[in-house]
């Protein structure tokens, strides 16, 4: 997301927990910005140096004091997400809109954790955000029409389409996707098929660009697990209970591309081996 907005002329402040994480992010953005023209032949993306020049990398949350839009991307754990919004309320301008890039937590619940519920909206970017053309936008129960319009304008300016949906745990995309991934894991757990064959069927039979288990590795198996746990806690339906194999893989630290091992092995650059 940082690269996306910076590539479209926005000044961006990237806040994270440590200098090491920020250094890794700076290196990744530099690499992807240099490759942007190859990924989209015929496009004329700005030079990597220009993109990086629009980004402030910092661990100081107070650097967001002048931001018009804050897109929050912390983990799906409510105990982490909830107190952050009190901090954002304290440091951000009263006019700042809070965009929530959550996988499953309802936007109305997040809005209740702030002093500006009318200015909280779901901005569910898919991974990788700088390549996906469409963003799922979620209107919470108290999200104002002005907040919707301001968010749409920012996305339009970044060359992104949007689909506006109502609020629900998992929204539209992840209520469908997480069940699909969980069932694909169940098929592997039961010995019905292998990860490679499950993914091959989806790609060759349905023309999907990625199979469900490749997608799970990209998202992060820990995030998939947390999303299913949120869905089960909110709906209480057994179809959302995480498969035991998913839980064991996360406990073993095999969380997908981010740990270089999930359903598939990956090289250190996140490229599948």
UniProtKB/TrEMBL annotation:
Highest taxon, organism lineage: Bacteria
InterPro entries tied to this protein: 3-OHacyl-CoA_DH, 3-OHacyl-CoA_DH_NAD-bd, 3HC_DH_C, 6-PGluconate_DH-like_C_sf, 6PGD_dom2, NAD(P)-bd_dom_sf
Pfam families: 3HCDH (PF00725), 3HCDH_N (PF02737)
Pathway the protein takes part in: Lipid metabolism; butanoate metabolism
Domain 3-hydroxyacyl-CoA dehydrogenase NAD binding residues, every copy: 2-167
Family designation: Belongs to the 3-hydroxyacyl-CoA dehydrogenase family.
Name of the featured protein: 3-hydroxyacyl-CoA dehydrogenase family protein
């Amino acid at each position: 997301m940082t690269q996306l907005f910076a590539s479209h002329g926005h000044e961006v402040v990237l806040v994270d927990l440590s200098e090491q994480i920020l250094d890794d992010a700076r290196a990744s953005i530099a690499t992807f910005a240099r490759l942007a023209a190859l990924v989209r032949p015929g496009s004329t993306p700005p030079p990597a140096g220009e993109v990086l020049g629009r980004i402030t990398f910092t661990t100081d949350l107070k650097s967001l004091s002048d931001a018009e839009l804050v897109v929050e991307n912390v983990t799906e754990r409510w105990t982490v997400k909830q107190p952050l919004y009190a901090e954002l309320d304290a440091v951000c301008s009263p006019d700042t809109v809070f965009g929530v890039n959550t996988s499953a937590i309802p936007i109305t619940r997040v809005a209740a954790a702030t002093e500006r519920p009318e200015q909280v909206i779901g901005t569910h970017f898919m991974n990788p955000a700088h390549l996906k053309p469409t963003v799922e936008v979620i209107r919470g129960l108290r999200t104002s029409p002005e907040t919707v319009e301001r968010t749409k304008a920012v996305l339009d300016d970044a060359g992104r389409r949007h689909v506006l949906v109502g609020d629900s745990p998992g929204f539209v995309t992840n209520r469908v996707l997480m069940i699909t991934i969980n069932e694909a894991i169940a098929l592997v757990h039961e010995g019905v098929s292998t990860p490679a064959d499950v993914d091959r069927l989806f790609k060759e039979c349905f023309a999907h660009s990625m199979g469900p288990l490749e997608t799970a590795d990209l998202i992060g198996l820990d995030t998939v697990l947390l999303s299913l746990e949120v869905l089960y806690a909110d709906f209480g339906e057994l179809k959302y209970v995480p498969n035991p194999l998913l839980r064991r893989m996360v406990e073993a630290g095999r969380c997908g591309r981010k740990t270089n091992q999930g359903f598939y092995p990956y090289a250190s650059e996140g490229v599948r081996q």
